[in-house]
Structures are given as structure tokens and as C-alpha cells.
Amino acid sequence: MVVSRIKILESSEIQKIAAGEVVERPVNVLKELIENSLDAKATSITIYLEDAGKKLIRIIDNGSGMSHEDAKLCFEHHATSKINTFNDLNRITTFGFRGEALSSIAAVSKVNLITKQELEQLGIELDIEQNKIEKENFINCNVGTELIIKDLFFNVPARKKFLKSKETEYRAITHLFYAFCFSYINVNFKLYSDNRLVYNCPAVQRLEKRFGQLYDHNIIQNIIELNLDNSKEYNPSYKISGAISNSKYSRYDRSQIYLFVNNRWVKNYKLVQAFIRGYQAILEPSKFPIGVVNIFIDKQEIDINIHPKKEEVQFLHPKLIENVITGSIIKSLENNFNKSLNYNAYSAKDMSAINISENIKQEVVDSQHFKEDKVISIPTYDQTIKIFTDNIRLEHNQELNSNEKNSVKNIDHKDAHDLDDYLNGGINNTDNRTKNNITEYRLIGQALKTYIIIEINDGLTLIDQHAAHERIIYQRISSNFTNVPTISLVLPEVIELISEDILMLNLNADIFIQCGIIIEQISANSIVIKQVPIFLKNILLKDIILKSIATIKENHKLEKDKLNNIIKEKIHAQISCKSAIKAGDILQPGTINQIIQDLYNVENKLTCPHGRPTIYNLTVYDIEKFFKRNYRQKIDNLFL
Ligand code: ADP
Ligand code: MG
Prior knowledge:
By secondary structure, this protein is α+β, with helices and mostly antiparallel strands. The protein has 21 helices and 26 strands. 35% of the residues are buried.
């Protein structure tokens, strides 16, 4: 057997191995570079990405810059200007101090550095490959530093192969970018991706303003300041500040909650949960708030893992911090609610006796426009059209070839097909279901504006009117969605989204097209919806888009086909839910009978698309058992 002999590794190989500790993917590189710029006191940081950083990361700052000697030294291993001895670690205030980042990055990519200090005439430009200076020039440039990192892992194919997809890398980078924007509001951050300016965030005085720069402009009215809840065990070893969304804003994922401990971004599931708990009384479980929490805490109380790649933090008293976060959020939401009450000229004194959380809950219910005493029936096609006429023009698609099975059908209101026909399978020619009429029932009526009660042979049946109608619509649109009638929107709604969401939409545009939804990107941060299935009410589009994005994010690891199906199902379920009659709608007997007939004719009739039951059967047996009728009969028999 041949035994390999021990040999000393080449220094370039050692550095490649060491690089793996710091640099695993583009986002790690960018984090190190931004931290260096902030350590150099930059107030303007501009980032350019190509292929989400896999091809190129370029960062330009207006910080202190480096002297010519330092520029040549900074790629050496353990080159740092931030500490001299181990003891200096105790008073460290900068992000970096290990002197590892630049040397690691340069070991696995091609680097170009331009830098100049204030008092220097000329700056210096260096080309570095495998940590060696290949070219060196004096150059006329601004004070500050520019670094270009090209072809990450060009010399480590094994690692390059394991880089994640562009969208995953881009998502990670935008999260990082948001985090820096939130923790350094005095810095002007800009982000370009593939030559497109995605975010321009000039310095601001107040954290709330950052939300306007990073989300949509109108969001600020829904962002409130986070106040420390010091009603309980106020402990001077920590301080909390931040800004959070109020009850009127929400997302369908929890990705936009940013937590900072002593100005460092940390990822901590428990703290995020504590944040979300603050909204328990006002947001339904599928909706999530957004916000920023800054925790300033005595160093003795925490252990921040100082490993460059890790963003974890351990608290000495974790439960205490979690409670403080939840409490502060509840307090801030209440304060905000009280303010809005004063605003509405209610007397604060009158309200003080009332449980505030209840009031917030009420506000949410009110905002959902719970329909009172409104008699409705399933809209006919003409009625549906009317809903749209204010802002929608129907276009007849001349090129429409109705024989083409996979085309999305675009109908004119003069067209003979109507929504009822469609829902009843009129358009669906391939549908050979045999009708399974239930005639053997007696309609008792509608109860609690929510349930249909019928009497059938062996008992009573309660039908949840919303769940049932949802199931009916869902089955019909999902069985032949390729023929769904669509309409073009004359005044397409502009929807502002964060850029990672837009990337998700673009990558999955085909799925939306198949569902009859045509989306067009109009700027780095906004899209318009140009065409939708006829069942969709205009106002709900943003909601549907956001829910779909959340679904894509949850399932992005699946194969494309599976992902397509899941998203389609979700979109169908949402369309069904939005267009179905609601609990609280008073129904007329004709409508009720239609729902009953339809429900008994669809597959999966026992649950709505979200899995809630549609039917509750109370058999004669159940009823008799409850009234102890069998028992009674037996007793009667005894006496006969
Ligand atoms: P560390 O940050 O741990 O000191 P790095 O490898 O990240 O190590 O950087 C090495 C040194 O290069 C820093 O200590 C600093 O002196 C210098 N440097 C890096 N980036 C910049 C920058 N953008 N502006 C000024 N100096 C920089
Ligand atoms: Mg550093």
C-alpha cells in the first residue's frame, strides 16, 4: 500500500482553504466589503452586481481610503489596521479586526482595487490575482475606495458548482442591503443589479423614512415608532428602539423583520417569533408584520459569535428580551391606536376604560367591510361585467382561436359565454361529468347569515355557504383553467414591490400567464397587471400577487413542475375565495338551491380549497341519540 507522504501546502492553497471559512457565497463577500467601508467611515456606498454577485461585485465608498503601502498590504493574511494586539479586542468598535476578509476574497477571485487618502495627490490602482499584485498604477481618483471582485471561485470549481441560483443569491443580498440601510440611516446606499438602479437610499434623519425608500412610498403612514415597554421590569442594561408596521399593513411572509443587537444584524428565530407575537391580536395568522428592532444591550449580557460569517447571538436572559420585544410592540400599537382615536375627536377619557386590544381587533374587523344585511346572489355575467366597467374596458381578442386548447380565452361582453355558463361547465366542452342532482332535500333556510340548512332523508345538513361556494368555483376553474375568460385592464394597477419579489415574479411569469394573469415590470420596483381572469376583482390583485410570492418563496427548493402546480393551486384557491359569496351575505332561495345543486356535483365537496369542511351532517341517529329517543322508545316498549 502506498502511503502519501506529508508535505507542506503551498501558501496559495492554504489561503484557498482558509477563504472557505469567510467566503462561501457572494453575500458573504459583500457583507465584508460593506463593513470595511463603514469601518472607514464612508457616508456613501454604491454597489453594483452582475449575476447576483457571482460574476461581479463592485463597491465604491467615500471613506478614508488607504495609503499606497496599506493598499499593497491589505490582501496579506492577517493584515488589519484595526488592532495591534490581542488585548485591543476588548475595545474594538469596528466590524472587522481579523484581517482575513480581503485576503480570503482575493484568494478565490480576481480583484481590482482603487483607493486614495485625503492628503494624497494620486491614488493607487492594483490588479490582484491569487493574492499577488499583477499590475500597479498611480491614478487620478476621488478620496475613498473602490473594489471590484470578479469571477468568484474561478479557481475553486468545487465551490463554484455549489453556488445557489441567482434568485437565492440575490434575495440574500437584498436582505443584507436592507439590513445595512436600516442600521446606518446616515449613509447613502445605492444598489445596482445588472446595470439597473434598484435602490437609491439617501441618508435620512428618521428610521421610518427608510421604509419609504425600501418598500413603497405610501408605506410611511403605516409605520410607527417602537417605544420601549417599561411598565414591567425595566432594566437599564438594555434599550430598545425601532419602527414597525401598524395593523393596516402586512405581508404573507416573515422575511421583512430585521433585528439588530448593538447595531449588528442578527438572525434569531425566537426574537422574530416574539416580534410576531406582538401582533397576535390584530393580524390573522397567515399575515406578518414588517419592522426593525434595535436592541442595545450591555456586552456582559450577550455572546455575539464573532465568527465573520455568523450572525447569531446568545442572550444571558433570552426570555426577558423576547418579552420586552413583544411588550414593546403591543405598547406601540396601542399608543398609535390611542393617537388615532384622539385624532378622530373621540374623548380619550371615554375610551380609557375599554380594553385597547379589543379595540384594535374591532378596527381590523371594520376594515374588512363586513357586509350587513346585504342581499346578494351569485353574480351573473352582466353583473360581473358591471363591477369592472368603471375602470376596465373589455377587449375582444380578434386572434382568438377558440379551438386552441392552451390559449387563454379573451372574451368580449357581447360574447355569448357568461360567467354562470362558465361556472356551470358551459365553456368546458371536455367536461363529461354526469349530473348528479340532489332533488331529495327540503330547504329549511339560511341561518346566522352563514349556514344553509337542509333536511335530507336521514337527517339535517348544514352547509357553510362561503366554503361551499369556494369549492364549487375552485373545481370548475381548476379543471379547465386554460379556457378561463380574461379581461384586459384599461387602467392597470401599479403595484410597488421589493425587488426580490419582482425577481420571483419574473422567474415564474409563465405560471401566471397560464392562470390568465399578465404582469409587466415597469420599473425596478413596480409592476402592472395588464390582464386578469374575469373573476378577479381589481382591488384584490396586490393581495393575490403577494400571496403567490410568499408561496414561491416557501417552495423555491422544489422542482419547477411541482412549484408550478402548487402556485397554480394557490392562485385558483385565492380566486375562488375572493369571488365566492361570503359569510354574512344574505342569500335568496334561488341562489341557495343553486349552491346546493352545484356542491353535490363537484369533486372534493367535503372541504373548501383551504381544507375547511363545507358540510356538517346531523343524522337522525345523532339527533335521536341526543334527545335520548331510542332510550325513550325502549321504555315505551316496556310499557306497551
Ligand atoms: P479587517 O477588516 O478585519 O481589518 P480586512 O481584510 O477586511 O480586515 O481589511 C484589511 C484592511 O484593509 C483593513 O483593516 C483596512 O485597513 C483596509 N481596508 C479594507 N477595506 C477598506 C476600505 N473600504 N476603506 C479603507 N480601508 C480599507
Ligand atoms: Mg473587514
